[in-house]
Amino acid sequence: MRILAVDDDPTILDMLRDSLSKQFGFDLECAEDAEEAMTILADPTKSFDCFLLDIMLPGVDGIELCARLRALNDHKTTPVIMITASRTHDLMARAFHAGATDFIFKPLNGIELGARINTAGMLNESLRRERVAHHSLAELTELMKIRRDDSFDLGVAGVDDLNAFENRLLRLPAGCYAMSLVAIKLPQIRNIFDTLEPAEFCRQMVRVAKASVAALSDTRCIIGYAGNGILVAAVLDRSRLNPAEIQTRIEADLTETWMASRIGSDIGADVSVRSISSQRLWSGLSACNMVRDYLGKDAPPEDDAFEAIGGLFDFQI
Cα–Cα distance between 103 and 78 in angstroms, integer? Predict the structure, then answer.
């Protein structure tokens, strides 16, 4: 397994080199700060299966570096394990929001570290298999068929499919979090689905996802596309979320980008943002269960699908 470790402490790097040697099946490369790490990643001949990031790096910290890694197409799901001496929940929540997979605490234990890395690798493989089972956008293109209730990867940074969304909630450390659960819906999804061609439908869902990410950009949140024109979001913040304000932001964004002429009206910009529950404290598991319960009650009975006549879809905006 190819690993890139980023830490400015020579003692930690020496310990990692001893624990993650080739005799144990690891191929370790080290960097002392985020800039050096990004330079290494810019080399097209190098690829990595896991990242170890110290949170307290000079200059760009480990959390920001994690976010930069997640912005790279090759590393949207590569395991990222954060190294820290702190057990502060806010710090961990920030790291998970940036895309961290797991934490390991100082002082490091070589056996535990190896086990965490192997577990992260297995989780990544499990997520890959789930994405294959539930279809990525590219796979749906090849199949020439899109169901309205499919949850698939929209290819938008900050938005997961439903399985990855649930896994991120379930990976939160044990404990309760101040969290708001909200649903962002297109009330006219059936009309939109029935009116648009498959490629246009997917482009419109990408627009909704991007507008939702922008509207929630000042919060720490996890967002997933659940199918049926529904995005679900878990906003990790002590302050109470204002769904009406979020809805106004999204609709203002969509009004500028929606192809109303193809739909024949402005129904494409009609968005509903509602709280899934008034409860404020959640564990990752209880939040996941509440979202599942909401989607189970909310899902429409129709089993509509687009059938593509021919050609490949182009989902670029």
Answer: 14
